[in-house]
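Researcher: I'm comparing several assemblies side by side, and this is the next one on my list. It has 724 residues spread over two chains. Same procedure as the others: predict the full complex and return the structure.
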Amino acid sequence: MLANLRQLLRYRALIFSLVARELKARYRGSVLGFFWSFINPLLLLLIYTVVFTVVLPGVHPKELEPFALFMFCGILPWTWFSSSLLESSNVLVAGGNLIKKVLFPAEVLPIVTVLAGLVHFCLGLPILAAFLIYYRVPVTPTDLLWFPLIVAIQLVLTIGLALFVSALTVHFRDVRDLLANLLTLWFFATPIIYPLTQAPERVRRLLNLNPFTHLAVAYQEALFKPGPFTGGTRLLAAGAASVVVFALGYFVFDRLRDTFAEEV
Amino acid sequence: MNAIEVRDVHKVYRRYGRRKQFATLKSALLSGSVLRDLRPDAVFEALRGVSFDVGAGKTFGIIGRNGSGKSTMLKLIAGIGKPTSGGVHVEGRVSALIELGAGFHPEISGRDNVYVNGMMLGLTRRDIARRFDDIVRFAELEEFIDAPVKTYSSGMYMRLGFAVAINVDPDVLLIDEVLAVGDEAFTHKCLDKFADFRRRGRTVLLVTHSLDLVTRFCDEALWLDAGLVKSHGDPKRVIDAYLMDVAGAENRQLAADDNANPKTQSPNPKSHAPGPNPESRIPDPRSAIPDPQSPIPDPHEVPPDMFKAAEGRWGSREVEITAVDLVGASGESSHIFRSGERVEIRLRVRAHHPVSDFAFGVGIFNAEGVCCYGTNTDIEGGVAGELSGDGEVRFVIDALDLVEGTFKLDVAVHRRNGVPYDYHRLLHTFRVKSRLKEAGIFRPPHRWSFSGGIRMSGLN
């Protein structure tokens, strides 16, 4: 397994080229092209703003104004997470031709999907930054130092799950459909459109078992909430969970690797 | 030194039962059968203990019928699959031309695809930048290299795929039948590149159905049959053994087809409605049904939907043809003959009562139903005496000067005015084999001669 990981490093140039290709190909033929990576989150933010200022004012705690922005801090990383998983569930099957005809490590494909998602996530960040500045949300500069760490932990977690899901889909094509529903459940089981503090004590304990809870709260703390970052322990827990998930995901992927060429 | 070493390789493909196709993760979880469903129902052994070495710098050909394990072997050597047991060792960088342009992304430009594809094949960005112009020139795509690949014609696509793969400059090049595609000019270009490769002492492993290619290029050949090495060594010897085997299988097949046809030995004459007029012939429905089991041993010879002409048998049966045999130079009854071989068509006839008005006829038709030759004793001036009891007619062809192909026979015994006693229409099939691939039907005995400033060798 470690030897395979080392080998993966040799393929990093390929991974980066494939990510670039993925991004280029995605908007090929659309008029606005790359701007969609900005426009999509922007439109999403506008919709939430309208819903929570016009339709549903006052369902959220007052200290979380503007609430749309609070939500956006969680939705942006969640979009990266969920779309990466959904896409990577299909990636080995769609890339069957490659796996059967060209010698290269198959894990490149789900990893590329997750990394392409990361790029989209990063392209959404300027929108978030612009609104944070516009609403004069007081961001503590030292909090921002935590931000790359949170992203890194999410990256490890997402790749681990993507490997697991992509390998499993080769054998069970219906993982895709199952996953879509599972992700919806997961979304609501994560304090993204509500603050964790609002959940009842009993539920909160359950929510804390979800690694993405810690990531979402960490994002909110680092970007939205005033005051110094207090999520150190949370991040530690999420980080440990992510490494375990990655190791398990990679283990499963590695075990099923030899069946890919015959099954896809 | 060996570039490739294959030691007692077995490859087992797992086949999952029909049930598996409908099984879902949910049902697997519910019945707790996840692990069981991941286990195969049946196994198929594609390779059953194959061992061979390929010396460095050698060009090595693997031949065999469809499904004999050739491509599986190639994939194992390429590292795309792993042997179930046994070992495959390859020295140096491998590039496999298994499918040209596998992994091209249709939406992005040829240029980007060259980079991505090159990296997939193990080149670095710098390597590709250095070879980029060569690649584009070889693919003849200078004008289109910045257009998205989806706008390419299939030929352009293939050329680009080949150009990238060949420019990886591997130590060991694996080729699976890809030279068979592409137009004439490009094939020549590929062969040139390929020869250039050999000159530089690189190892080439070729999986092909083109025996001609193996004879021309390979230093050694390996014949795989049903996952086993059938023969290995000098290409000429291996190919001859292979051809003999294919011919043998075809022969058995043709004989089986013949037996399926209404034979003269048929004890029930009522099954063949007699009729004096050839136009009222009864096509035999059985012969119109293709045998689903029929193996097609040589993929170059896939028979088209031939012999549409109705087959059958009719006649008054006062005189019967009780057996038809084709006998080759060996003196044995056969269905496969070499072009130019001596062939006898032997008819056993039986007259149920003595007749004095009779003639024997023979016609040879090719797969398109064209009459290649037809004659009878009457046309040739034979004067019938008497026919009674049993007898044998031999139509002796000293040299069967037909080109390669499948042919069918008409044989008949009839009155001199054409009214048949017994007419066998296209009931007997034989095959002519030739090492040459000439066109047409008839091969007149000939030779070439040259004078003046023309030199040529190899003709005989």
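Model: For your comparison table: DSSP finds eleven helices and 18 strands in chain B.
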